[in-house]
Amino acid sequence: MMQQPPAPNRQTTGTELVRIIDCRQAYHKESSADLVVLDGVNLSIRSGEIVGLLGRSGSGKSTLLRIIAGLLPPTAGEVIWKGSRLTGPADGISMVFQSFALFPWLTVQKNVELGLEAQGVPPAERLKLAEDAISLIGLGGYENAYPKELSGGMRQRVGLARALVVKPDLLLMDEPFSALDVLTAENLRTDLVELWAEKKLPIQSILLVTHNIEEAVLMCDRILIFSSNPGRVAHELQVPFEHPRNREDLAFRQFVDRIYALMTRRAPVVSEADMTDPDLKRVQISADAVPLPQLPMNTLVGMMETLAADPLHGRADLPLLASRLQLELDDLFPLGESLQLLGFAELEDGDILLTPEGMRFVQSEHDIRKHILWHNMLHNIPMVRTIRAVLDERPNHRASAERFRDELEDSMSPPYARQTLQTLIGWARYAELFDFDEEADQLFLDDEAE
Amino acid sequence: MTETGLSGNLRVRPNIADLLGLLAIMAAAVVIATAGRHMLVPIPPSEAGTIHLSPLWLPAYAVRTTLRMFAALGASLVFTFTYAVWAAKSRRAGQVLIPLLDILQSVPILGFLTFTVVFFLGLFPGRMMGAELAAIFTIFTSQAWNMAFAMYQALRTVPPDLEEAARCFGLTPWQRFWRLEVPFAIPSLVWNTMISMSGGWFMVVYSETITVGNTDIALPGIGSYVGVAIEQRNIWAIFYAIVAMLAVILAYDQLLFRPLVAWSARFQTDDGATVSAPDPWVLSLLRRTHLLRQICLRTGDIATRIGWLALGRRPSAPVRPIIPSRVVDVAWIAALIVFAVTVGEKTWVYGSAHYTLRQIAHVITLGGFTLLRVAITVFIASLIWVPLGIWLGLSPNRARRAQMAAQFMAAFPANLFFPLVVVGIVHWHLNSNIWLTPLMLLGTQWYILFNVVAGASSYPGDLLEAARNFHVKGWLWWWRVMLPGLTPFFITGALTASGGAWNAAIATEVASWGDTTLSAQGLGAYIAHATVAGATDQVGLGMVVMAAFVLLLNRALWRPLSNYAARHFTFD
After folding, report:
1. A34 has pLDDT over 90
2. Which end of chain A, N or C, is surrounded by fewer C-beta atoms within 10 Å?
3. Which chain positions lie within coiled-coil regions (chain A) (predicted)?
4. What strand order describes the sheet that includes A398-400?
């Protein structure tokens, strides 16, 4: 399709650090076809740039990061690190974790020294290097604190110092700010970009995994947009701004909007004739069961009501809607897509618009709303259709939930399958389409629902 | 372990605290050396009456008893760091080792004595060493399984992000083990070690007077002291022994249990949730000494260095999620089946040659009696301790004291109190079938109290406030508010208590005072009589039946119950 990344148009002077060639990652499954997480991924990272991997959760970008870190071998394809094949955690690559991954029984100092100790650096030198890294990252004075005494932002600073102290060529960051509150994250981002721009960081390049579009535009020189199911590089963009960047800048906003548009562009309609192409067939099948986030119906209803009301009248620019709902920009995607799945809204070029069906839902009383949702779930979600068919067929109108989770696992990992079914159950309960017996782990039809 | 060792003052001047510490250490060394010498002495002629009932001898006996405890602890640690680590690191080994551990855990420990005494005496004929080792092995069996399980669980649940960080920064397997896996396991390992040791005191007291067939050995210690006191109907000596044991447990509690548990809190991974209790005085004293502290830091330093030795390869190749080879798996399972069938066949041949069906049915009936006894005592103990525990637990201050008291009492070997009850039964001619029963739970009931207090003190305050706001009182309060929230804790406590009671049955269903021997109907009495008679066949049968009872109860009752409670009655 469109994964072949165009040659970088900006003249990049740096040397190539990492090249990933035709990388594929699949999980072996007992019962059915392998679950493909990454497929046909090609990319390269040069020195002197911050590269962003932007994609939705579950798109496999964290998996790709672990492959580059040498923590996970790709099922197929190669990782070339500084000209030779990568076979394990390399010396010049270090990582910052989403969960910080600090050792709770070690002080800040000892945590930072970890990588040095593993390399066998003598104590005196270790002490010096760690102190330098700690003060560079703005943690001077906290050397003897234990991680549990620190706030989230400070902990991530420790994680950063620990990664920097080994003077890596490539710094991998796995959603490093997503566990932090908005202000703390912004503060840490700004500090990091400033240090990078002033060339104070002992690194040549950063690879940042994120699902936050603004974060990617704020920090990166180049953004690779990941598509899901299976994960692949769908688009590549050069960010044409100098540091420091201003979020309020018109050009900045337009760039963010452009990425929104790219990420919400509707999938090409597949005609019956194309279905002979096995590649497309797979796409179509996996589209049957998209992982659903934890989304209670009330949230969806709230969003639809906002969207329908003054002054939006059923259509809104996504970033604008986000600020109106006081949501983080990237929280909107799952919401919008769920509405789209239910046939209540459409996503188009960075905009969201309510369908007539969605409008009717908003304007109806509770009972009618139930009925509309009932109808739309059955009509639009194959899994719901299957469940209902099975339950109708059974004399006792009961069926094990495990069976449907198994079915979902054909196209997603077990945790996502669990969550997806959970979400479907929540919606189905709203519509009184079917109910769930948690104790017996069974789905069943309530008397009234029959 | 690794505090700011390098920046400490370079010229270490000993202070008063150091002096006290050093004196204590030297005293301990002398005592240990003396006791150790005695172990190699030949078994004295039994009629010589080696156990003196004068209270002046008690301190020496107490030291001997304590040393046995620690020897067993050392062995248990070695076992834990080999068996559990092996089971966790090798999938195939785990398939065998873990179920085996599960079975070993339900085998009545005191039943082992018959076999181990014969074995160890044969190993060191005519020396005290053999008897000592048999006693130590008994204590070992009361600790090792539990500790190994704790270690295994911890090794299997190391947080994946820390694991990845360790690999990312290039730690070798050896370094990962000592820098990540062991520290992560420490809180649960320390806690379980302390719980096991509490149970161990009961075993050490019991195993010091060993009578197997016509071998009759009394190892100098508090247990044998009490044994002789019973023989001679000397009730004052029993009081002396209780006082001496109180001192020992107090020292153990203050010098070891509390400092270790407080220290292990540092390795807790979840943040903030733990209430920081004040440091036990031993720990703060140690921190105040100069020289001793330096020594500790140096030792810690050396330990750290060993942990950093770059043994093993650095993670050069990423660990490929091992797709188990089918062929090897099939061969392995086939080998296991062959082994199981062979063992089963041998058992069958042996069993049908030595036991009649009637005998087996009889033993199972006895098991039923003991089961009834366990059930009734757990029920009665619950009636007492649940309300009391709730009352204690609802006030943080009372809760803290109650938990300390319960821990202390759980460690105190309840068998020292048995003679007092037995004297009462003999004196008033009571029915031993009924009145020996409460002894079973004397030592283990504290687990019910301990867990109920823990449950009540962690009960969410807002729910209690809501109940008060809606004027929920009386029965409604108990059934709708307090008891459901307490259920998971109560089940843990009752499970531990009843498990201990099965074991104690062997020690409690038979009791004597002078030449009067009381005996209750039950599986414990059956095993105890068979042990004294040296009837290995009967002991074996009794143990198998008891283990089967315990396993069955765990599978059919406790496990489903606690799963159910965990699903329904937890607060998150």
Report:
1. no
2. C
3. none
4. A398-400, A442-444, A435-437
- The reply to whether A308 and A438 lie within a common domain is no
Fold of B52-268: MetI-like fold (1.10.3720)
What residues form DSSP beta bridges with A51?
Answer: A207, A222
From the list A98, A118, A148, the residue facing B170 with the nearest CB is A118
Query: Out of A119, A127, A148, whose CB is closest to B272?
Result: A148
- The residues near A427 (Cβ < 8 Å, ≥ 6 apart) are A297, A342, A373, A377, A433
Could you write out the DSSP letters of every residue in A253-291?
HHHHHHHHHHHHPPPPPPPGGGGGSHHHHHHHHHHHSPP
CATH code: domain of residue A326:
1.10.10.10
How near does any CA of chain B get to the CA of A327, in Å? 26
A108-119 helix and A123-136 helix, angle to the nearest 10 degrees: 130
The stretch A60-68 carries a mean pLDDT of 89
Q: Decide if A285 is inside a domain.
A: no
Confirm or reject contact between B161 and chain A (CB < 8 A): yes
Same CATH fold, B330-572 and B52-268? yes
Q: How many angstroms separate the CA atoms of A34 and A100, rounded? A: 31
Amino acid at A58: G
Q: Does B273 touch chain A (CB under 8 A)?
A: no
Cross-strand bridge partners of residue A353: A315, A346
Instruction: With a cut of 70, list the residues of chain B below it in pLDDT.
Output: 1-23, 25-27, 29-49, 127, 215, 270-279, 290, 310-325, 572
Strand partners, A79: A20
| Residue B5 in contact with partner chain A when CB distance is under 8 A | no
Say what the pTM is: 0.79
Residue pair B212/B118 in contact (Cβ under 8 Å)? The answer is: yes
> Which residues have a Cβ under 8 Å from the Cβ of B502 and sit 6 or more positions away?
B108, B370, B374, B546, B549, B550
CATH architecture under which domain B330-572 falls: Orthogonal Bundle (1.10)
SS3 A26: strand
Q: Determine, for residues B315 and A89 on separate chains, whether the beta-carbon distance falls below 8 Å.
A: yes
Residue of A nearest to B165 (CA): A101
List the domain range (segments joined by +) for residue A417: 368-450
One domain, residues A309 and A430? no
Q: Which two tokens stand for residue B293?
A: 């502290």
Whether B268 has its CB under 8 Å from any CB of chain A: the answer is yes
The answer to whether A103 contacts B162, with C-beta atoms less than 8 Å apart, is yes
What is the number of domains present in chain A?
Answer: 3
Residue A274 counted as domain residue: no
